[in-house]
Amino acid sequence: APQGHWQHRRQGRDLGVRAFIRLRPVSVVETSDIEMFEMSPARPRVITIKDPLSSGRREHSFEFSAVFGHEMDQEKIFLPVAGPIVDGALLGRSGCVMAYGQ
After folding, report:
1. Are 47 and 21 spatial neighbours (Cβ–Cβ below 8 Å)?
2. Closest CA relative to residue 39, chosen from 28, 52, 29, 50
3. DSSP string of 56-88?
4. Measured between alpha carbons, how far is 102 from 60 in angstroms, rounded to an integer?
5. pTM for this one?
6. What is the pLDDT of residues 64-78, one digit of tens each?
7. Cα gap 91→21, rounded to integer Å
8. 48-57: average pLDDT
9. Where would a tag sit more exposed on the chain, N or C end, judged by fewer CB atoms within 10 A?
């Protein structure tokens, strides 16, 4: 069977459900003294969202398979996110990519 670009990373195991996030740039209207998103180099797969209406007192953290900044181009996001699913589809496997954006 042909080996896809990402096949060596799978090592024969199912990747299961993975969740990715790409942060969009903050608009001029949204700019404030409080940063809405926080990412820590110590936890690169975790993003903390701060509620701007609470003056930074309320926040929620979420862990993803990977977090992409707004400066990432489409190709650098496609390869790790959809690449394995496309490779699998070419080998006859089922796969699904769901995307939501604003």
Report:
1. yes
2. 50
3. T--EEEEE-SEEE-TT--HHHHHHHHTHHHHHH
4. 20
5. 0.68
6. 999 998 888 888 999
7. 27
8. 76
9. C
Q: Which tokens is 10 given?
A: 């799978």
Res 33: pLDDT: 54
Give 7-56 as a DSSP string. HHHHTTS------EEEPPPPPTTT--SS-SEEEETTEEEEEEEE-GGGTT
Rounded CA-CA distance 27/24 in Å is 9
Read off the amino acid at residue 61. Answer: S
Residue 68 pairs with which residues in a beta bridge?
Answer: 22
